[in-house]
Amino acid sequence: MSVYEVLEKWGIKNYRIIDEQAIEEITLGASILATGGGGDPEIGLLWTLGTIEKGKDIVLINPEDVPDDVMGASVGCLGAPIVLTEKPPSHNVLEKAFKELSRYLGENLEVVIPFECGGVNSTVAYAIAGELGIPVIDVDGMNRAFPELHQTSWVANGSHASPAVSVDDRGNMTIIDTKEDNLRAENIARNAAMAYGGISWKASYPLTGREVKEKSILYSQSIAWEIGKAVSEARQNHRNPIDEIIKKLKETRGVESFKVFNGKIVDINRDFGGEATKGFSSGKIQMEGMGEYKNQIAEIDFQNEWLRLKIDGETLSLPPDLITILDNETGEPIRTDIMKYGYRGSILLIPAQERMRTEKGLEIFGPSYFGYEESYEPVEDIVAKKGR
Amino acid sequence: MKKEVRIGFDVGGTFTDGVIVKGKDILSKTKTLTTEDVTSGIINALDDLLTASKVDPLEVGMVSFGTTHTTNAIIERKNLNKVGIFRIGAPATTAIPPLTGWPNDLKEAIGGNENVFIINGGSEYDGRDIVPLDTEAVQNACKELEGKVDSVAITGVFSPMIPDHENRVAEIVKEVLGDDIHITLSQNISTISLLERENSTILNASVISVMQRSINALKDATKKRGIEASLYVVQNDGSVMSSDYAVDYPIFTVASGPAASVRGAVYLSGITDGVVVDVGGTSTDVGYIVDGFPRESAITVTIGGVKTNIRCPDLLSIALGGGTIIKNSGDKVVGIGPESTGYNLVHLGKSFGGPILTVHDVAVARGGLNKNLDIFTNNFVTHPEKIKELSNDLVMNATKNITEMLEVTIDQMKTTPEDIPALIVGGGATTMPKENVSGTTEVINPDHFEVCGAIGATIAEIGAQAEAVADLEVEDREQAINEVIEMAKNNLEIAGGVKDTAEVIDIEEIPFAYMPGKRQKIRVRVKGKVFN
């Protein structure tokens, strides 16, 4: 079946085709929203570009056009990034995971739901949709990146990660069905990845059209796309990319974001040893202010993603609000896995979406989940209070 | 006769520099124009040096050159070998086949997709097979490649740690295609990151003949001039390798120019930790010296439109050189670069009676360019009256901006905030400000800075390295490290060095994050002498 037959069946006339330029802009925007994490998106990008080159159409549709009773699922990888760079996937891993999940559920999965922004996972949704001839919905589960399977707006609003299917390149398969225990699903998925040889490919979060509409971050793909476009246009026209992002978010989404610092990294303190890091890349950086921020000091903690920002000792942003550090000239995000002393950039804070700020949401990715004693306060309130 | 004389060349985009040295003495130096074929430019420089120094050719013990032969061939898609491409990794890796993302013209120049085979096999990080190696498929592929390719590139998943499948495929290729086929194994080219390593391996296989021809031509040329000396090629860490080894690993020369500059600067100044600022006409490369060698880049290096992970010096380039144009409004500086007068500095610059204010002119006004270098045919200033017209404030403002550009670039290369020495070299070195450069302990123009790269090429030192993975839960750490040191020393010998002179430069231990157990990568770099 072609993707256009699916669109016709649902009466969708309004959709967008994702071409090379589009996927490159979405990837750039998503890596900015990844708040320092997500890792290198290269493999997912190459995969998607290959799919487009083969002549497969990739179609992005609006969430409100998806019928309530249609089912979809998200796809992605889970495991060690270093293994992924050395052992890219088989061309059929995601297709297999998707189809096996469909078989286990006894339901047709007719649409791909992007999982997160950043890294390989933000792009493979497009590759697999192109291969399967089904559309991608303009949503995701966080509009940023988080390291663990259960840290999504779907769980934050009462849905579950399982049933899920995890496969490897040889066709080995694990069906994960932990009912409401999302943390256990994450556990099993990670152990399966290790048994496979460090990386697994999964289809998870089977959701109905109605659940997608009620619990996802809506238009997250458009937001990533708009940000990516704004930055690539700023590069061409020699405009400040950070200002362009702020303007774009305000204009098209009514979202107020905040440039709160400009400086350079003067100290990086990484945690070492499995005990301290629990397999994450974690630590703390210090930035020294430049220009109008001269004599100010910013401190940012990270655990794969940037977590908490303090300027001159006062907290300015806590998870799940987004902290991004962007190169002043190129707008390229500075990632926690590749940052170095001397990197220069501006800190831009973007409020997390309301669906991320539920009670359950703060339990699974709020300050206390990362061991902070401070209670969560929305970034826009803190910024207003401190007059920044 | 004692063979104490060494000759070094450094091929740049515009000039080919040469020096002839005896012990610590520089007997003669030259700058000749780089020729399109590169080789004849080197031979011209060689003739200049022999004529000027009047050295007896039999005294010459070493001839070495840093070169752009391979880079040019890849960029121009010229004279490339047709390459048979094996990837060992199916059923994994097939989502992104070999040559994905390559420019089409380059892909065609090396024979294209029809010579690509993805074979079942490869390893997991822990040493298990992904699946057993499909030897029959390798044999069948070889039969298809017969008569169609000049060289073969073999890349196996996790081969830098577990080389067995790559080695086995190489044996089969030789059995079917004969001993004369040239084989590049990815385990010898670079490290983890399959796609970039594969790209690097394929590129290496594509320039074997280019390197072979240039080395044969230079061997001939030296022999005809009565020189009986070994030939060496500068590699990406700034040390040299024997020319025979270079034929197998031509890709290790792509960054030989900037690397040789760093080594030359270290040699000339005696400083082994600091920054090297190599100033040209339109741009400046800043490199960092650690223990006398250029620091390696941690990011991917793009060559001819292809992403690679070949070890190259960590360089930061900025659009600032002697010919860079300064835009001003009265005494205020509005912008510096990125435009440059380039070659036309001697017509367009104010110092030469032209209309355009350049970095060079500001240096003349500052009094920084008072002595001429005999190696350049032009004077630094032919119209001093034009320079006198410049206001003091403008010169000061421009100097301040240029200094700031230098400061920011130097700072970005540092890994800690401490001040460090800066060595300024290259043809445009004298145009840079040397006073009040913050972040530096001192700013030095070493003698002979204008032929720094050629001097770097004459240093008779070879660098080599080796890496392996150890599981510290079952292996003794010290023993594991010693084994890698031994491997590196063997590699040094293969590259043309004297094994007994090997010294360890550094030992890196990189734990595998996100993995259970105590697995880590061990990497050892060594250096040794060319002669005993």
TrEMBL record, chain A:
Highest taxon in the source lineage: Bacteria
Annotated ranges, domain S-Me-THD-like C-terminal: 181-379
Pfam families linked: S-Me-THD_C (PF20906), S-Me-THD_N (PF06032)
SUPFAM superfamilies associated with the record: CV3147-like (SSF160991)
Domain S-Me-THD N-terminal: 22-177
The protein, known as: DUF917 domain-containing protein
Source organism (scientific name): Pseudogracilibacillus auburnensis
Origin organism lineage: Bacteria, Bacillati, Bacillota, Bacilli, Bacillales
TrEMBL record, chain B:
Alphabetized Pfam families for the sequence: Hydant_A_N, Hydantoinase_A
InterPro entries associated with the record: ATPase_NBD (IPR043129), Hydant_A_N (IPR008040), Hydantoinase_A (IPR002821), Oxoprolinase-like (IPR045079)
GO molecular function: hydrolase activity
Domain Hydantoinase/oxoprolinase N-terminal as annotated: residue spans: 6-176
Every Hydantoinase A/oxoprolinase domain range: 197-461
Residue stretches in coiled coil: none
Designated name of the protein: Hydantoinase/oxoprolinase-like protein
Source organism of the structure: Pseudogracilibacillus auburnensis
